From TrEMBL:
Domain of life: Eukaryota
InterPro entries from the UniProt entry: IFN-induced_PKR_regulator
Name assigned to this protein: THAP domain containing 12b
Organism ancestry: Eukaryota, Metazoa, Chordata, Craniata, Vertebrata
Length: 714
């Protein structure tokens, strides 16, 4: 009896072993371990190998392969040799034809046309240099002062004097003090340069197919507001990139913006919105509400363009920016002002550190912690509201000292900014709103920090969202109790700072004529701040973390290190349907996922589990798992995921910020901005010349416009 049970158990074990490793070649299974079967590093699943059965004559249920005679082999060799000779002759004919065409094209160009192309090439070299170095076209000359030549004109003259023959021949007859090129001709050159550089990026996006759209905060050009547009995609080296493409005019209502954005992506860039897999919008103030409506409109047309937070913005800051309540927006605007204020000069930062030392002189450890936190970009951190509450007294003291300016160290503009910030900090409405934001968003702080972490952190964050929402709803259900504690904290803080507790003056003025009695401050701030903030946070979290979003993020378990962390007890197949239509072979997905899991579960001990999507995509054998490969490429384009090589990938965003901070509004130029931000993108001057000649054939020398080009004045 015992022997029979043992034999049955042994058969079951062999059957299970066969099922588990049946997709891998026998030669790729290592028998060195006495306890288990270990896959070799080169193990490849044979489920996708359509030729392996030809090498196994003993395989069952296969058609018998015909044995070839010597005569058959001879005939096959003759056919292959004839085919190779024919292909070789065909290739030589094509090369000869191409060489002849190129020679004929060179012959067709007259001396004047060659000279014209050399002239254009010199112009494009100057334009590209202006863009890369962020040099404006015009000089910075105040009104009423005699104008110097423009920067563009000065560079043309410099090149002529340096021996550029093409430019010298073109402009040698031009009168003194006359601009060589008109504003319209400069605009043409800029448009061609901008379009050529953008097309280099777009070619890579088209090759990768899937992408996500990311927009930045509004910027101003020539008195008009524009929306910066970025695209996220995986390039041919399997690296995730985020590149800047263009500025979209921010005009019209939400429906109009949706149509403009869609038209720009499809007609302007030649992409398909059906291939857009994500969207994120970094916005502030009333602009945030409008962009939220744009996101909803795009998802209505293209459900796969999932709306997510942007990885470059802390989740708590995103949530606060999305709340369309005046008191909340005052807090967020003040934090942005404080950030800009202290970046003006190191001496201002020194004043803040002095104020911290005064208020925390009995707690040196806390003082050192706050000083360390304030060194860089503290207004953009996950714990910004906690930090601001701790720093509030020090900030007010610092602003008062700068405003007094006893030693006349600061200019009037700085003291004016300090006065404005101090007036806001000393208002009870600001204090109570800040305290409510600190406490309400404490429930999402750890969740948001994980979202900006490694792939494993994001995976755990996706699985913890239910608990986060449960906590927020529990607060909302017991809002009376929570508000009482939060309001008391605000009152105590205001008392220390000697700030009176009162209802906002604007509310009293608006309700002065009403018959309603006087409303207590605690009741007012509960109805107009605490309740709307909690409700708004819950709604926003629900919107940006829909079921589709969570399904996608839970598929991060495809990353081998996450599989290992979960003891290979993951269920990707339950969530993989979110991108099923994007896969090359969706029918084989369950079997492929099984092979993928077995490959890493039974690896040799020396093999390290890749911990990121980027590392996984760099594996040489990931191509043997086509569905997994495609799935990870689509998943990584979601804007909520951090750019793994941030120093390289965030170059475009950093260059945009640098351009905006270094360039006065009146000197900003959209085309030069695109060239500057994309200075790392390769460019071909000959392509620019060809494109210009194709777009503006009337400028060719045979049309007799040389005189017009050299005499038009800006």
């Amino acid at each position: 009896m015992h022997n029979a049970q043992f034999l049955r158990g042994s058969k079951l074990h062999k059957k299970e072993h066969s099922i588990r490793f049946g997709f891998f070649q026998v030669s790729k299974r290592s028998r060195k371990s006495p306890y288990r079967t270990v896959l070799k590093d080169t193990a490849i699943p044979t489920i996708f190998d359509l030729t392996s059965h030809l090498k196994n004559p003993n395989s069952r249920h296969r058609k018998r392969i015909k044995e070839l005679t010597e005569e058959d082999i001879r005939r096959i060799k003759e056919r292959r040799l004839a085919s190779s000779i024919e292909q070789l002759h065909s290739k030589k004919d094509i090369e000869a034809t191409e060489g002849q065409d190129a020679t004929e094209e060179e012959i067709k160009l007259s001396a004047e046309e060659k000279d014209f192309r050399d002239y254009l090439r010199s112009l494009f070299e100057i334009v590209v240099m202006l863009g890369k170095q962020n040099i404006p076209l015009e000089t910075n000359v105040p009104e009423g002062v005699e104008r110097d030549p423009s920067n563009f004109q000065a560079l043309l003259e410099y090149r002529i004097n340096a021996g550029d023959e093409a430019l010298r021949r073109r402009f040698e007859a031009t009168a003194v003090n006359v601009e060589y090129l008109s504003a319209s001709q400069q605009s043409r050159l800029l448009d061609v340069c901008e379009g050529t550089v953008r097309e280099e990026v777009l070619m890579e996006v088209r090759e990768s197919r899937f992408f996500s759209v990311v927009t930045g905060d509004l910027v101003e050009f020539a008195g008009e507001r524009h929306l910066p547009l970025f695209l996220r995609f995986v390039d041919q080296s399997n690296a995730l990139r985020e590149e800047f493409l263009d500025f979209l005019p921010f005009e019209g209502d939400e429906a109009s913006l949706v149509e403009k954005l869609e038209t720009q992506v499809t007609d302007g860039w030649g992409l398909r919105m059906e291939d857009c897999r994500g969207q994120a919008h970094v916005a502030t103030g009333t602009f945030a509400t409008k962009m939220k409506a744009v996101a909803v409109g795009l998802m209505g047309k293209y459900p796969m363009a999932m709306h997510t937070p942007c990885s470059t913005c802390a989740l708590n800051i995103h949530l606060a920016n999305s709340l369309p309540f005046p008191s909340v927006q005052v807090v967020m605007a003040t934090l942005r002002k404080i950030d800009v204020f202290f970046k003006q000069s190191p001496s201002l930062q020194t004043e803040l550190e002095k104020a911290i030392s005064v208020y925390y002189q009995e707690n040196n450890e806390k003082a050192a912690e706050l000083k360390e936190a304030c060194i860089s970009n503290w207004t953009e951190q996950h714990n910004v509201f906690e930090l601001t509450v701790d720093l509030l007294e020090s900030l007010l003291l610092c602003m008062d000292c700068i405003r007094d300016n006893e030693n006349v160290k600061f200019p009037d503009a700085v003291t004016g900014d300090a006065y404005s910030i101090a007036e806001t900090l000393a208002d009870f409405e600001f204090i109570v709103t800040l305290v409510i934001l600190k406490n309400a968003l404490s429930f999402t702080r750890a969740f948001g920090k994980n979202l900006q972490g490694e792939a494993l952190d994001v995976f755990f964050a996706a699985n913890s969202l239910t608990a986060v929402l449960h906590s927020l709803n529990e607060v909302f259900d017991n809002i009376e109790v929570y508000h009482e504690f939060w309001f008391e904290e605000a009152v105590n803080l205001a008392g220390i700072m000697e700030i009176p507790v009162k209802v906002p003056r604007l509310f009293l003025r608006k309700n002065r004529s009403a018959d309603a009695g006087e409303i207590p401050p605690e009741t007012y701030f509960k109805e107009y701040v605490t309740v709307p903030v909690i409700r708004g946070v819950i709604d926003e979290v629900d919107d940006i973390f829909s079921q589709s979003n969570l399904k996608a993020l839970k598929c991060l378990s495809l990353v081998p290190a996450i599989m290992g962390q979960m003891k290979f007890n993951t269920s990707e197949e339950n969530h993989a349907d979110v991108y099923c239509k994007d896969l090359p072979n969706p029918d084989t997905l369950p079997a492929e996922l099984h092979c993928w899991k077995i490959k890493w579960k039974h690896r040799s001990k020396e093999v390290r589990l890749p911990s990121t999507i980027h590392e996984t995509l760099q594996l040489s054998d990931v191509k043997f798992f086509p569905n997994v490969n495609c799935f990870l490429k689509v998943l990584t384009t979601l804007p909520v995921l951090m750019l793994e090589d941030s120093n390289r990938s965030e170059t475009s965003r950093k260059r945009l910020q640098t351009y905006l901070s270094d360039t006065p509004i009146k000197h900003r130029c959209k085309s030069l901005a695109v060239l500057h931000i994309n200075s790392h993108v390769k460019h071909d001057l000959d392509v620019m010349v060809d494109k210009y000649c194709r777009l503006y054939p009337e400028d060719e020398p045979e049309h007799g416009v040389e005189a017009e080009i050299s005499t038009v004045v800006i």
